[in-house]
Design goal:
Elements lengths: L24 H4 L8 E6 L3 H12 L4 E7 L2 H11 L3 E5 L9 H12 L4 E6 L4 H8 L6 E5 L6 H12 L3 E3 L1 H20 L3 H11 L4 H8 L3 H14 L7 H17 L1
Parallel strand pairs: 1-2, 1-3, 3-4, 4-5, 5-6
Helix pairs in contact: 5-7, 7-11, 8-9, 8-10, 8-11, 9-10
Length: 256
């Protein structure tokens, strides 16, 4: 191209328009683009924090915006960056007990659209129950050992970003075992007669049939049934639901 000096430029000269490029959407559609998930990481241990950052930054669908070593550092970052997901440790300064749980609840309350992935060193079902007490949508509870499995960690992050919920398999096992222990403890608190009545319920008998089988009045059956429901913590359910739940307690106890 030859450049013309100002005094040589033709009066009617114009810059040639740059042709617009047209994208072949049929070709682009053949390779769908995956959305990038923005993240904050909160972990007091420097090596774990930077290790998590390295694992996630190496993934093309993850973008770590910032990291924090304490709740005091994290909260302003959440306000500033508004991430899709916050990945945080369950035990953080100053007491290293349940700061992560309380922090997760606060973030979910102030930013309902932000997903939370809580990491724990131990499979403690009580912590999981505390975390999920206000709802499980957009929340994951994983063991820290999952940091070594990038694909599963990314899957959990994307799941909570989309409003889903994930529990580590070992946490689920712990919850089931805790439920079995609670069920056994409640059933163990029944009197011998109440246990007999509960066994008759489990056989599918109504109050009249139970009364005949145990040679007691229907009123006594109702009295024992109400005591059973109360001891098993089933006082708020409908009568049918209470009977079904009570039978499940009985079957769980007798099959353990």
């Amino acid at each position: 191209m030859v450049r013309m000096d100002a005094d040589q430029e033709e009066p009617n000269a114009r810059w040639a328009p740059v042709p617009r490029l047209r994208l072949d959407r049929r070709r682009i559609g053949a390779v769908p683009l995956m959305p990038t998930t923005t993240l904050l990481i909160a972990e007091d241990d420097y090596l774990v924090r930077e290790g998590a950052r390295a694992v996630l930054d190496a993934h093309d669908r993850m973008s770590v915006l910032a990291t924090a070593a304490s709740p005091a550092e994290l909260l302003p970052q959440v306000e500033e960056h508004r991430p899709d997901v916050v990945l945080l440790d369950i035990r953080m300064p100053p007491t290293f007990t349940t700061e992560g749980i309380e922090l997760a609840k606060r973030i979910r309350r102030d930013h309902p659209g932000t997903g939370i992935v809580v990491l724990s060193q131990h499979a403690d079902p009580e912590y999981a129950l505390d975390l999920l007490r206000d709802g499980s949508a957009g929340v994951a509870y994983l063991l820290k050992e999952r940091l070594g499995d990038a694909d599963r960690l990314v899957q959990a992050i994307e799941e909570v970003r989309d409003g889903g919920s994930i529990l580590d398999p070992r946490i689920v096992e712990g919850l089931m075992e805790a439920q079995r222990r609670r069920a056994a403890s409640r059933v163990a608190g029944l009197t011998p007669r109440e246990f007999e009545v509960l066994g008759e319920m489990a056989s599918g008998r109504g109050n009249a049939a139970i009364a005949r089988g145990l040679s007691i009045s229907e009123r006594s059956v109702e009295k024992h049934a109400n005591a059973i429901f109360r001891k098993l913590g089933l006082t708020e359910e409908t009568d049918l639901n209470r009977r079904v739940a009570a039978v499940l307690f009985f079957l769980q106890r007798t099959t353990d």
